[in-house]
Inverse folding.
C-alpha cells in the first residue's frame, strides 16, 4: 500500500497546525518547515478546508487552524477522502480491469482484504494520536514552544 504525496501532505499539514495552533501558521511556514512546495500545499490546504478539516483566517494575523478537535479527525476517514481510488492493482478499477484471470482470481480478494485491514488500523487512530508528542514535533519543525 502506498499513499499519494497529496495524502502525505494533508497529514503533515494537519499535524503542523495541531502542534502550532497559535500564532496561526501560514502555508509558507508549513512549506518551509517541511521543505516542500508552497504551490502543492495551497491545493491541499484549500481542499482540507472544503472537507471541513481546516479553517482559514484572512488578514494580518491570519493563517490556518483546525476546524475540529484533533481527537475528532480520524486517519482512516482522512485517507479515504484524500486517496483518489485506493486501487492497489489495475483489476480493482471496474472500467479498466483487463486481466485474463479476473473471473477466477484469488489475488484480488486477498488484496482487497489487505486494503480493508490497512484502513481498519488507520480507523483506530486520530490526529491527536499523531501529535501526542507535540513538544518533540515542535522542536523538529523549528518551532518555539507555544506560550502558556
Amino acid at each position: 500500500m502506498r499513499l499519494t504525496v497529496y495524502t502525505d501532505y494533508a497529514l503533515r499539514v494537519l499535524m503542523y497546525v495541531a502542534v502550532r495552533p497559535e500564532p496561526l501558521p501560514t502555508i509558507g511556514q508549513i512549506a518551509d518547515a517541511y521543505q516542500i512546495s508552497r504551490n502543492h500545499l495551497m491545493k491541499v490546504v484549500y481542499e482540507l478546508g472544503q472537507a471541513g478539516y481546516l479553517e482559514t483566517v484572512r488578514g494580518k494575523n491570519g493563517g490556518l487552524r483546525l476546524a475540529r478537535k484533533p481527537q475528532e479527525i480520524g486517519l482512516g476517514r482522512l485517507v479515504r477522502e484524500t486517496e483518489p481510488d485506493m486501487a492497489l492493482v489495475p483489476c480493482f478499477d471496474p472500467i479498466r480491469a483487463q486481466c485474463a484471470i479476473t473471473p477466477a482470481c484469488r489475488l484480488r480478494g486477498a488484496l482487497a482484504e489487505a486494503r480493508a485491514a490497512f484502513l481498519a488500523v488507520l480507523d483506530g487512530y486520530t490526529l491527536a494520536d499523531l501529535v501526542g508528542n507535540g513538544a518533540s514535533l515542535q522542536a523538529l519543525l523549528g518551532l518555539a514552544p507555544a506560550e502558556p
Notes: The CA atoms of residues 23 and 142 lie 14 Å apart. The domain at 5-140 is CATH 1.10.10.10 (Arc Repressor Mutant, subunit A). The mean pLDDT is 90.
